[in-house]
Amino acid sequence: MERQLIKIILTYEGDKRELCVEGWVRTKRESKGITFLEINDGSTIKNLQVVAEGTLDGYDSLMKRINTGCSVVITGKLIPSQGKGQAVELTASAIEVIGETPENYVLQKKRHSFEFLREIAHLRPRTNTFGAVARIRSSMSFAIHKFFQERDFVYVHTPIITGSDCEGAGEMFQVTTLPLEEIKGRTGGIDYAEDFFGKKASLTVSGQLEGETYACALKNIYTFGPTFRAENSNTSRHLSEFWMIEPEMAFCDLNRNMKVAEEFIKYIFAHVLENCADDMDFFDQHISKGVVENLQSIVKSSFEHVTYTRAVEEIEKSGAKFEFPVSWGTDLQSEHEKFLTEEIFKKPIIVTDYPKEIKAFYMKLNDDGKTVRAMDVLVPRLGEIIGGSERESDYGKLEKRIIDSGLEPKDYWWYLELRKFGTVPHAGFGLGFERLIQFVTGMQNIRDVIPFPRAPKSLDF
Ligand code: 4AD
Ligand code: MG
Fold first, then answer.
1. Is 367 a residue whose pLDDT tops 90?
2. Which residue's CA is the closest to the ligand 1 atom numbered 7?
3. DSSP codes, 158-192
4. How many domains does the chain have?
5. I need a surface site. Which of 37, 111, 138, 313 has the fewest CB within 10 A?
């Protein structure tokens, strides 16, 4: 007999074929000696309706055991549905209860707040929202690889444990096997020569620096992996552990970098619209009205390009009031990023040429000596979703930028050497995967688009 996923079953005609389905009971509705079960198996947001008639073997005892959440294996015939809401239904010929659920199963109740569901992160994938988020994450990961593989980018696995701070911002989690409890009371500081690697080690904040070494050999590469930031940001768009996609291209300047970023984002959006229609309908109806139309319009639009200098002028000209005032030289806060995308340009924008003081050391210095070839892609509702740049490819200028940023050239000796041997203009960017999922689904909080969120003072699972 055909054992099949509900996603596939729902594409069949009700032609009385015999089927076996495995899943979990979402709801049970009894009426006059007949029971309707909604079964979900995670393959789709949609449920399969199963009809159990009173004549079924062991009907009474079965129905006593079946509750929301229990796992079942059901065989039966697929027929055109008699009721509204579904084209086909399964008339059960046998039901096997695999795992029962007691009355106090917390997901019996239909609606829970997302805050509460974070406290039961082990059960939340069983809800419509988190099931849909998981499928969208998976489909988008596939689309990301597909985009780059179709363009001959090489997928490079950059390390998680590193000795260098890519962003130079000192927001790294340390990795150590030193006996911290013992060291606590000791004076004279810590001797990292005694530590596991013989030097200070951390979790990476970005795979970019190592990615550049491969781009300077294989031309076009990308990374897609977890990154870690010990920044104390308790916001709805920051995580301490998040996934980042980082392409890096040799023989590439900022203009091409911007083109790739825009094409990439549109490609993923188009993929999701085409391949995750049921889940996207759910987000559109229940999470954020208009989210589908928004993606459709972005796929057709073109991103606005604006320099940092002009962006600041636009904000100043508007006369709008902000918590953090803006003037040339200050970093754009998320309130300014939202204002630019939502009020001024009303679409995604790419802001370029930021002051060098507010950007990382590796960005190429412009001829004005004040700004760097940086690019941030900003989107409505979220602000920054991509950060990237053309890289400084001149040895002397890069060394000076490292020193001026308060960093040690000797810590970046191998990165500097890329500029000594066959240096080449190159550029790349980093897309925050969870911010992307937030944007696509319309989910408010970044902690609800990753299975097990990590944030300051929060590690419950
Ligand atoms: O702008 P960022 O810091 O850029 C880099 O890390 C570069 N090395 C990328 C590159 O050029 N290869 O981070 C890139 C993106 C941000 O635009 C944002 O989407 C995301 O990573 N991001 C975060 N997402 C969730 N939580 C955080 N704490 C994040 N910090 C950055
Ligand atoms: Mg950034």
1. yes
2. 430
3. --SEESS-SSSS----EE--S-HHHHHT-SS---G
4. 2
5. 111
